[in-house]
Structures are given as structure tokens and as C-alpha cells.
Design goal:
22 helices, 3 domains, Tetracycline Repressor, domain 2, two-stranded antiparallel ribbon, single chain, CBS-domain, about 70% helix
């Protein structure tokens, strides 16, 4: 079975689980509605509800949830309206709360944490490793974090402080402290005996890390080399020293690129003194890539943050208003541009019908350019040496596209209005607006990147606004000069 088939099978299973949960919730709601319609004393209604619901549909729902992976439960919670979400959340066993809170989106996590008291939150966090607690820390109340620090052993407390000290976009924030390290002067037999002492190896252990007595990193010993070599072989003779090493202050994007380029499963994290301080694993990198991709999509649409799809109307409005306000301003500007040429439009009504074509194609072309530039920036492919060549290349692409599609819309205008002059104006306006779109499509993300901002943040909104106003101005300006 191919990877794609595996993925489709997994997605279908999750969807099936969601449908089953929704069905049970629907049955629960129907029975509850019927019972409430019965003309019985309140106490009798509660007793009837306990008999009909909690012993049937809710009990079945709870059994269903017990058999699901935390990630599947997180998916289901995100797909349910808030009232049903909280009902399902109450049915989840408390010892799984922490694992599920890590898996859900930030927006949904906020709604779940709001229903939990101090003791429940502390108990949920104590189920997690220190690196996972650090991920959860921004959403936890300060008093819960103080309780956690007091309850953790000294070593884990220091690990948590270290993990929380790194920026979100750094390798340190992705780092896992749960790893296996050995010395280079021992035999494979000794290593095997040491590994068998573990109840289970840390997830994604494809290699063990070799250190000296002071924890200075020496190399890695892949598990597959341990399996195929004789037990008397010494680690130092087999270990690999030419290996990818990450540093806590490295950008997480760089680590993600290394994992993709070299097909890594895990990689050591080394501090400035050369000591092994942690590791990064592929599952964390995949989560980071997914989060960044989702963030880029939201930023391009001008959304301020990730949004719970079942959030209140007011909260969703707060998340979306900023760029809509900017859009309104740019729309006012575009309308003023049009008003400057009211006389020309009155003389040649065809201009009103044709000018959206110029603006629309310009916006699409600009968004294509921005998408390419943002991707190149994310991959680290743009630098001071090649930025000018890239700019010239995009200008060339847009110039040629402008000539091709400008000729097409010019021919369209000629066939409809039988005016060569109008046809030429359409062609020239298309070329010029696509050149504007290409210029801004390169400059906007590069400028944002240089200022330390996310190059995708609202870029599509800005380019659309610019090509709308610019397209109207160019087209109507040329029409005023040559046609009226």
C-alpha cells in the first residue's frame, strides 16, 4: 500500500470516528429533549435522564473515546460546536487531559482550559514531559505554573526553565530532553544491556548519542549498526562523527530544512560548549512545519491569529477586523481614483465595464509572485546576491504575461467595441499593471522580511489593494490621454 493510501485510510478512520461521536451526541440530545418535554417533577426527570442517557449513549460515547488516540480526540474536539465539545471533554479520562491539550489547536485549547480548575490543570500538565509543558506554558495561569515548578524534580525544573527561555521559532523550543546517551569506550554488549533496562526507548530513537564524562558530544551510534555488528565491538570504532548537529539558538526553519534534506529522524542539540543538551525529532519538526503552513495561510488572508471555527461571533469579528478595515481604506482610495476620471467614464461607458479586468488580472499575478517569494524566503533561497536577479526575472515574467494576456483582452475589447485605440489602451494597461504587480510582489515580502516581520502577513491583501488602485489609475489615465 502506498503512503498516499495509508494517509487516505487514516483520514477516513478519523472521519468515521467523528461521525460516530456526532451520532451518539445527537441521540443524547434527542433523548434529553424528549425527557424534558415529559410532565414530571424535576427530580423524576433527573432520575429518568440518569437512567436513559448516562447508562446508554454517554456510556457508549465514553467507551468510544477510551479507544481513540489523543490526536484523534483532539481532531474530534476541534470539529464539534463548543457545547458538544465540552460535553465530550468531560467524558475524557483525566489522565489523558495533558496529552489531548498538547494535540489540539491553540484556539480550542483556550476553550478547554477555561473549564478546568487549578488542580485539574496541574494534574494534566504533570502527565507531560518538560518540553511539552513548555509548549503548554503560555496558555496556563501563572499560579498553575508556580505549582508545577514546585512539584517537579530539580533536573526537570531546570530543563523546563531552559525550554521556556528560547523563542518559539528556535531549535531550543523544539528540543526534547528525553534521549539515550552512552560513552565511546564501552562495547555494544554493554550498550545492549543498558538499553534493556528501559521499559521502552524514547519515541523516534533511531540512534543513541555518544558523549564523554562531561557530556561533550562525540558522535552518534545508529541502532541498525548495533544490530548488525558483533557484541564485542567498541562504540568508538562504529560511531559516526560526521553528523548533523543543531544548536538551541538556531532557527527552527533551518532545522526543518535539515530534516527534509537529509531524511533525519532525530538530531542532537549541542550548546556553545559542545555539550549535548537535547535532541529534535521528526514528529516535532512535522508539527512545526504544519503550524507554520497554517500560520502562513492565515497571515496571507489577513487573519490575526488561529481561529476556533466555533468561536463566538464577537471573537471572530475581533480576529478579522484589522485587515478588513485596511481593505475598506484601500477601497476608498480606489473609489477616489475612479472619481478622478468620472468625465472620461461618462464619455466612454465601455471603460467602466473593462477596468475590473485589468485590476483582477493584476491582483492574481501579484499573488502568484508573492507566493513564490514567500516560499523562497522560507527555504532560505533568497539573499543579497541574488535578490536583484530574482527581481529582474519576475519583471520579465510579468512583462511577457502582460504582452500575452494584454493582447488577448485587447482583442476582446476590439471584438466587442470595434475600437483599435481602446484595444491598444487595454493591452498597454495590462502590461503596466502586471509590471506593478511583479514589483510589489517582490518588494512587499522582502521588506517585511527585512523588518523582521512575517513576509506572508497580509501580503495578499496589500498586493490586491495596490493592483486595484494602480490598475484603475493606469487604465483610466491612459484612456483619458488617448481616447477622450
Amino acid at each position: 500500500m502506498t503512503d498516499t493510501n495509508h494517509k487516505n485510510h487514516y483520514t477516513e478512520n478519523v472521519q468515521d470516528h467523528l461521525k460516530e461521536v456526532e451520532s451518539l451526541l445527537h441521540k443524547h440530545a434527542l433523548v434529553e429533549e424528549v425527557v424534558h418535554k415529559q410532565e414530571l417533577p424535576r427530580q423524576d426527570r433527573h432520575a429518568l435522564l440518569d437512567t436513559l442517557l448516562h447508562k446508554q449513549h454517554l456510556a457508549e460515547l465514553q467507551r468510544k473515546l477510551e479507544g481513540l488516540h489523543p490526536a484523534d480526540i483532539a481532531y474530534i474536539l476541534e470539529a464539534l460546536p463548543i457545547e458538544q465539545r465540552l460535553l465530550v471533554w468531560d467524558l475524557v479520562k483525566s489522565e489523558r487531559d495533558g496529552e489531548i491539550l498538547i494535540e489540539v489547536s491553540d484556539a480550542v485549547r483556550e476553550s478547554l482550559i477555561a473549564t478546568m480548575n487549578r488542580e485539574e490543570l496541574r494534574a494534566a500538565a504533570e502527565q507531560l514531559d518538560t518540553d511539552e509543558i513548555a509548549d503548554l506554558a503560555p496558555d496556563l495561569p501563572q499560579n498553575v505554573m508556580r505549582d508545577l515548578f514546585k512539584s517537579l524534580p530539580v533536573e526537570e525544573r531546570e530543563q523546563l526553565r531552559a525550554a521556556m527561555s528560547y523563542p518559539e521559532d528556535s531549535v531550543g523550543a523544539l528540543m526534547d530532553f528525553n534521549m539515550v546517551h552512552i560513552r565511546e569506550d564501552v562495547t555494544l554488549e554493554v550498550v545492549s544491556r543498558y538499553l534493556r533496562r528501559f521499559d521502552e526507548l524514547p519515541d523516534h530513537t533511531d540512534q543513541v548519542f555518544v558523549v564523554d564524562r562531561d557530556d561533550h558530544f562525540k558522535g552518534v551510534l545508529p541502532i541498525n549498526l548495533m544490530v548488525v555488528n558483533e557484541p564485542h565491538m567498541v562504540v568508538g570504532e562504529l560511531m559516526l562523527t560526521d553528523t548533523i548537529q543543531l544548536h538551541p539558538d538556531d532557527k527552527a526553519e533551518q532545522a526543518a530544512q535539515s530534516f527534509e534534506r537529509y531524511d533525519l529522524v532525530s538530531a542532537p542539540v549541542i550548546d556553545e560548549e559542545g555539550k549535548l543538551v537535547g535532541r529534535v525529532t521528526v514528529n516535532v519538526v512535522l508539527d512545526f512545519i504544519r503550524t507554520e503552513s497554517e500560520s502562513d495561510l492565515l497571515n496571507q488572508a489577513g487573519l490575526r491569529e488561529e481561529e476556533d471555527i466555533f468561536a463566538s461571533v464577537w471573537k471572530s469579528v475581533q480576529n478579522r477586523w484589522a485587515w478588513l478595515a485596511l481593505n475598506l481604506v484601500t477601497a476608498f482610495i480606489a473609489s477616489r481614483v475612479i472619481s478622478i476620471f468620472e468625465g472620461s467614464i461618462e464619455k466612454l461607458v465601455a471603460l467602466a465595464a473593462l477596468m475590473p479586468i485589468i485590476a483582477g488580472i493584476g491582483g492574481n499575478s501579484g499573488n502568484q509572485t508573492i507566493t513564490m517569494i514567500v516560499r523562497a524566503l522560507a527555504l532560505g533561497q533568497i539573499n543579497a546576491g541574488n535578490a536583484r536577479k530574482l527581481f529582474a526575472k519576475e519583471i520579465g515574467v510579468s512583462g511577457l504575461n502582460g504582452l500575452i494576456w494584454g493582447s488577448a483582452v485587447g482583442l476582446f475589447a476590439f471584438l466587442i467595441y470595434h475600437s483599435i485605440s481602446l484595444s491598444l489602451v487595454m493591452t498597454l494597461a495590462m502590461i503596466l499593471n502586471l509590471l506593478v504587480a511583479a514589483s510589489l510582489g517582490v518588494l512587499i515580502p522582502l521588506t517585511l522580511h527585512k523588518l523582521g516581520r512575517d513576509p506572508a502577513a497580509g501580503s495578499s491583501v496589500m498586493i490586491t489593494a495596490a493592483t486595484d488602485s494602480g490598475g484603475f489609475f493606469i487604465f483610466l489615465g491612459l484612456a483619458t490621454i488617448f481616447l477622450t
